[in-house]
Amino acid sequence: MNEVLSIFHAKRKYMGEVEAGVDAARAAVELKSRREVLKNFIAETHRRMDSSRTSVSGFGRSAAAKATAAVKKRNEEKQDGLLQTLHITPQPITMESIQRVRIVTCDTLNKNASHRLKTECKQLLMFARKQPESVGTGRLYDLNMNQLTERLTDEVTENRIRMPDKHKLHVALHIHPDCAILSHGDLLTFTKRKNARMIIALGHDEHCYAAEKIDNYDGISALSVAVEIAQLVNVVTKGALTAEQYLQKVIEEMQIGEKKMEQYGVKFYEW
pLDDT digit string (tens) for 37-53? Predict the structure, then answer.
């Protein structure tokens, strides 16, 4: 049963990171996700769980409780981070933030392209650093991260920069001066464009939010969800809410929408 094996490996990964003294929050989140998959599988197949098959040395009640606490803390921090990233004040680009840009992994880019993405992110931040803080910048690339356009600049409107379309598969990398999450406009444009394979929003603080289309991508259904998200956000915008209530509501709608889009082959990342 692959579900049982995946929990075993997730526990080993979590314990390995704990023993190494590194932040094991992501491993704890992965373990929780694997457990939920197994729980649903058992419920659907009416089987019984044999806990001995997922047993890992050192992972007892204490470790399980700490893993649960780590997941809770990470979710709270993520929620706080989302609230902070939805503000509209451009943030400064520092040399420290440029140096923090990391190599990332995803389904769309191979190892070499991932290395190139890191370089392009640094170069785009360096370029953006010379622009007024409120100006957005971006560039299109092929799936090997070869440049398809010059660096683009535009005054940011609703956390967006207007990016051209291309008649070949491409990656859209653009700067969000306010370090915001992918906007409803980003997702709408991404799902509308047949050849847009991946979209990345790079914040002035080097934080990235990204979405990619994977093998089971259902364009019609994903676009329908993106339109629904945009409509709901517009309704929220017109409501008589305080700034805090508005931000909270937008976060909720975006999170619900992203979960729906995942069912139709859109994979989301946060780096």
Answer: 777 777 777 777 666 67
Residues 202, 175 contacting (CB under 8 angstroms): yes
Quickly count: other Cβ atoms within 10 Å of residue 52's Cβ.
6
Residue 87 has pLDDT above 50, yes or no: no
Structure tokens at 1: 């049963």
Residues sharing a CB contact under 8 Å with residue 57, sequence separation 6 or more, in sequence order: 15
DSSP string, the chain: -HHHHHHHHHHHHHHHHHHHTS--HHHHHHHHHHHHHHHHHHHHHT----GGGG--TT-SHHHHHHHHHHHHHHHHHHHHHHHHHT--SPPPP-HHHHHT------SSS-HHHHHHHHHHHHHHHHHHHTS-TTEEEEEEE-TT--B-S--EEEE-BTTB------SS-EEEEEEETT-PPPPHHHHHHHHH-TTEEEEEEEETTS-EEEEEE-TT--HHHHHHHHHHHHHHHHHHHHS---HHHHHHHHHHHHHHHHHHHHTTTEEEEE-
- Distance in angstroms (rounded) separating the CA atoms of residues 56 and 31: 13
CA dist 267 to 47, 139, 216, Å?
30, 21, 10
Alpha carbon distances (Å) from 233 to 29, 82, 158, 177, 253: 28, 15, 12, 21, 7
How does pLDDT run across 13-23, given as a tens digit for each residue? 888 888 888 77
Identify the pLDDT of residue 156. Answer: 41
